[in-house]
Amino acid sequence: MSTLLVDRPDEGVVRITLNRPGTLNAMNAELVAELHDALSGIAVDTSCRVVLLTGSGRGFCAGLDLGGYGGAPGSDGLGRVEGTFATQTHIAALVPRLRTLPQPVIAAVNGPAAGGGLALALASDIRIAAASARFNVAFVRLGISGCDIGVSWLLPRLIGASRAWELMLTGRIIGAEEADHIGLVLRVVPDGELLQAALETAGLIAANSPWGIRMTKEVMWSQLEVASLQAGIDLENRTQVLSSMTGDMQEAVAAFLEKRPPRYGNTGTAAP
Length: 272
What we know:
Elements: E1 4-10, E2 13-18, H1 29-43, E3 50-55, H2 80-92, H3 94-100, E4 105-109, E5 112-114, H4 116-123, E6 126-130, E7 134-136, H5 151-159, H6 161-170, E8 174-175, H7 176-181, E9 187-189, H8 194-206, H9 210-222, H10 229-243, H11 248-257
Parallel strand pairs: 2-3, 3-4, 4-6, 5-7, 6-9
Antiparallel strand pairs: 1-2, 7-8
Helix pairs in contact: 3-4, 4-5, 5-6, 9-10
């Protein structure tokens, strides 16, 4: 059985479902490798406008499989330090991979999102939680640092340093309602309505031009790293000029004036 399911529940939407329900979709080497491969394929798929990331069964992702992870690709024959480092970097590379994916990612969080599962949710662009969702920084409760797989960079930027430090130092489990209160998730919906809620948000995104969405995602993440307001504005200025060179802006204006939905190409056509 594949550890990953990929399907298309709606036009322009690719759903990735972590598929190890017996372990609450805990990460092993096979799942991580399949997720890397799936994201690489989606990145060049111009028919995909939005990605949904979720888990099968009762959980989103319980983090690292403590019952046996396996080894990262190419780690056979390496020493203990080298092999462990290869595994660590292979898992952690999922976070920048999600961040640089051209398409926005919506995490539809069902049940536990712990440790590495929390990291996947944080690396997504939008998080929608089922009422059964639970979140925690599990690393610190395993005798290691609470700072792992990008969590110590992402979490304070999403919910503020004070709240993030408390969650990282305690490893405390928070429910969907608290996650909503502190701004970790966009909203909370009943368990049976999670997919529909995620698809509704995906539809609102997909209604915009593919190039405009791609540039918005790229710049909004880069703005977390720029050093000043002026540097951010400079980045926006260049991106807007670049975006205006596609045919999408002209199509959007024409659609508005003609009172019809815009008809965008997969990547935008060259402006005359």
